């Protein structure tokens, strides 16, 4: 029997964490998989075409962050129903949106093979990226195969496990239950903070955890890496009516994933993974932190670079998507807690620490606008001429013994102190 050879490429665009020492220095590696040759015989619907063969792979290209003006609105007249905020869908052209909707319809009907048409390879990469990043609930779409004819894709196929419908329903039930536990009348920020804390308090950061690139790892197995943390946070935020999407990029340690959220038409960065404490050999600090909860570009982009380009089989797609400027501090945790400072003033910080001790508040946190100001505070509070013990002594608390531990984060310009006493 006469057969045609058609190449189908298994495309993976996922971040695998290879190892880490401590927060916020997680180390991620990008994993690239290659495709197999598919044999298609004369009885298939492809027989009327004369397919050509090609070979190659896709990788992720790292570039500097590309942004739009602050007042840019990512909206469209009619969004697909897949997620509460289709951030990437809104940036597709009309033809790409139709293919996106076609994939959405197929996933909602649990189809593993979906026919597509009238789209270039570059556009398919763009659509798949948009769909996968917009829709964490479709956990099986993190990789796919595609078949091409005349250099154009005509079909994509997702690898689906036998029990995936049960898993899909289980995840939705779990998500609904988690969101229902958010206190009644919570503001949108309070919902975000609740879900941020939920993920950190219930998920362990584990290298090479099963399904660590999708929400199953974080919500079902309770073990994941950055992709699982961020996608689970996105999934829960969307269920809570919060506009939240997934973003991939790099840090000093390698590939990484985090979130972008929108509150009252303003944009903020969130990195749930870096809020989770990771032990170092020489410290006992194990407290959740809010260093990267609802932060602006000034803080976030010191340590995070957004991927905006993509290397495909035979081309490079620059500026695949754009991201808004995040310039507002209104929901920065430190700003809301009145512990955000443009400059360091010894008397001000001394009095704040003293007041907190007098009111039995033993967790004390500061963020400074610049690294230089944070280091000035750090050196004054903790080094040779430090005043931290002086503050505790002058507080006149009825303590037999007292001590403190502290940490500082030069990526976030923060200082965190925990006082213990008996």
Structural description of this entry:
This protein is of the alpha+beta class. The protein is 29% helix and 27% strand. It has helices at residues 94-108, 121-134, 164-180, 188-202, 215-221, 226-239, 297-300, 333-336, 346-358, 371-382, 388-394; strands at 3-8, 11-12, 14-20, 26-31, 36-41, 59-61, 67-68, 113-115, 143-149, 152-157, 204-205, 223-224, 243-251, 254-263, 266-270, 293-295, 305-306, 309-311, 316-317, 323-324, 340-341, 363-368, 402-409, 414-421. The strands form eight sheets. A five-stranded antiparallel β-sheet has the order 16-15-14-13-17. Strands 2-9-10-8 form a four-stranded antiparallel β-sheet, with helices on one face. Strand 11 (204-205), helix 5 (215-221) and strand 12 (223-224) form a beta-alpha-beta unit.
Helix content: 25-40%
Averaged pLDDT, please?
A: 79
**Per DSSP, what share of the residues sits in E-state strands of 2 or more residues?**
25-35%
Number of strands: 24
Broad shape: elongated
